[in-house]
Amino acid sequence: MNIAVAGGTGTLGRHVVTIAQARGHRVVSLSRAEGVDLVSGAGLAEALKGVDAVIDVANIQTLNGKKSVDFFTAVSGNLLRAEKVAGVGHHVALSIVGVDRAPVGYYAGKLAQEDVVRNGGVPWTILRATQFHEFAPQMLERSSLGPLVLVPRMASQPVAAHEVAAALIDAAEAGPQGRAADLGGPERKQMAHLVRAYARKHGQKKRVIEFTAPGRLWRAMRNGSLIPAAGAAVGRQTFGEWLETDP
Ligand SMILES: NC(=O)c1ccc[n+]([C@@H]2O[C@H](COP(=O)([O-])OP(=O)(O)OC[C@H]3O[C@@H](n4cnc5c(N)ncnc54)[C@H](OP(=O)(O)O)[C@@H]3O)[C@@H](O)[C@H]2O)c1
């Protein structure tokens, strides 16, 4: 197949590109660094010529609800309009388990993205996954305050990014299916535990302090709203196994 990967240079996108190529697909990656701006639409029409399926893993790093909604609606809208013109038969989008149970901040954008995809006029698949194992190091980097790391209480069931990437390619190969079964990792852990384990493995002598963050989003993260319900697909690689392979 000819597959376009929106955000193919990102944390997840790199896995999608590598695995799709290894399976013999022809892959084009869409990112600003590669001359395609998904927010303005510049370069998109040319890049989608001859493409069978688009896998959208583009992202903005923000906690601001308006910025998130603006980004994800613009990117999905531009992709879907260009897909219709180019005759792309399948739009595969990655979302997050529990976005509808905490539709605020960043998640408001993901929920808006799902809505645009469902109504975009191109046959679609939406896969919701839990946090990637890489979420813990991102938290370590963003929440460090000198020797301290302040981690909000958060129940998580993290999954390997390469397994999410493989599931997205499976979906592209299988054809449009609407909402796919949610995908989570094999174990439930508190985020502070994962951040501590990552810091220890990488020799960072930081003190990880878990705290109760205010607001609806963090309440949802605490109370297990981001944990997949029964019937979800379960990834194989544990956080500990991923840590052993992480460079
Ligand atoms: N992190 C998690 O734990 C998690 C869990 C479940 C689902 N997800 C979802 O996974 C997806 C990927 O997340 P990620 O962490 O892999 O993202 P990421 O590392 O932040 O990568 C973002 C990608 O989007 C591209 N991009 C950003 N703005 C763009 C623009 N205006 N035009 C074209 N490309 C643009 C970036 O390339 P350039 O900067 O070069 O443009 C990059 O390739 C997101 O949809 C996220 O919601 C994440």
Structural commentary:
This protein is of the alpha/beta class and 247 residues long. It has one domain (2-245): NAD(P)-binding Rossmann-like Domain (Rossmann fold, 3-Layer(aba) Sandwich). 40% of the residues lie in helices and 20% in strands. It contains 9 helices and 13 strands. It has helices at residues 11-22, 44-47, 65-86, 106-118, 135-142, 161-174, 191-201, 216-222, 239-245, and strands spanning 2-6, 26-30, 53-56, 90-96, 124-129, 144-145, 148-152, 155-156, 178-179, 183-184, 189-190, 207-211, 233-234. Strands 2-1-3-4-5-9 form a 6-stranded parallel sheet, sandwiched between helices. The chain has a 3-stranded mixed sheet with strand order 6-7-12. α1 crosses α6. The radius of gyration is 18 Å and the shape is globular. The chain starts with a strand and ends with a helix. The structure holds NADP nicotinamide-adenine-dinucleotide phosphate. NADP nicotinamide-adenine-dinucleotide phosphate binds next to α1 and β4.
SSE blueprint:
Elements: E1 2-6, H1 11-22, E2 26-30, H2 44-47, E3 53-56, H3 65-86, E4 90-96, H4 106-118, E5 124-129, H5 135-142, E6 144-145, E7 148-152, E8 155-156, H6 161-174, E9 178-179, E10 183-184, E11 189-190, H7 191-201, E12 207-211, H8 216-222, E13 233-234, H9 239-245
Parallel strand pairs: 1-2, 1-3, 3-4, 4-5, 5-9, 7-12, 10-13
Antiparallel strand pairs: 6-7, 8-11
